[in-house]
Amino acid sequence: MGWGQGHPCERPVHSLWVDAFLIARTPVTNEEFAAYLAATGTAPPPFWSDPGFADPSQPVVGLSWDEAQALAVWFGARLPTEAEWERAARGGGDDARYPWGDAKPGHTFTRPPRVGKTPANPLGLTDLSGVCHEWCGDWFDESYYHGSPVRNPRGPETGTRRVS
Question: Of 30, 69, 120, 143, whose CB count within 10 A is highest?
């Protein structure tokens, strides 16, 4: 976990164990989120009507952590821990910089692409690198990597920000 050339909060690179877990193959789409809105009466997030973010096949954007948490519970799931998300994003590998390997992205986006249109990693997961923020269940602590448990780290007990 971590990246030795990244921000100090991503260091040191360290090995850890993450028990088996399930994670969605793609981010939640606007179409899926619309079903949640209809079922719960929840107010739509910012950008919901913005043409750059409103395609039904795009990932839903602009959710707060609390909204993402409520959505996960509605789906019968939970937000992944940071360690789980990183393990999934690495696609089963241990030291590639990006989900698809070490090559820098050959594309930039002016808006999020439709879900499933970015290269899949070896686990078949897509849209894990810069398409949109993906909330994790952990609280953020810039120094957490320096003393985190080596088995199933869950982040600090408290904090002022969440990991995305």
Answer: 30
pLDDT of 4 above 70: no
Q: Could you tell me if 131 and 118 are in contact, meaning their C-beta atoms sit under 8 angstroms apart?
A: yes
Q: Give CA torsion, residues 5, 68, 130, 58, to 10 deg.
A: 170
Nearest to 132 by CA among 121, 142, 118: 118
**Alpha-carbon span 71 to 83, nearest angstrom:** 20
Cβ-based neighbours of 146, under 8 Å, separated by 6 or more: 12
Angle of CA points 100, 62, 41, to nearest 5°:
125
**Which one, of 77, 62, 73, 67, lies nearest residue 133 by Cα?**
62
Does this model's pTM top 0.70? My answer is yes
Model confidence pLDDT, tens digit, residues 51-106: 999 999 999 999 999 999 999 999 999 999 999 998 898 887 666 666 666 777 66
15/122 Cα distance (integer angstroms): 20
Residue 43, both tokens: 């107010």
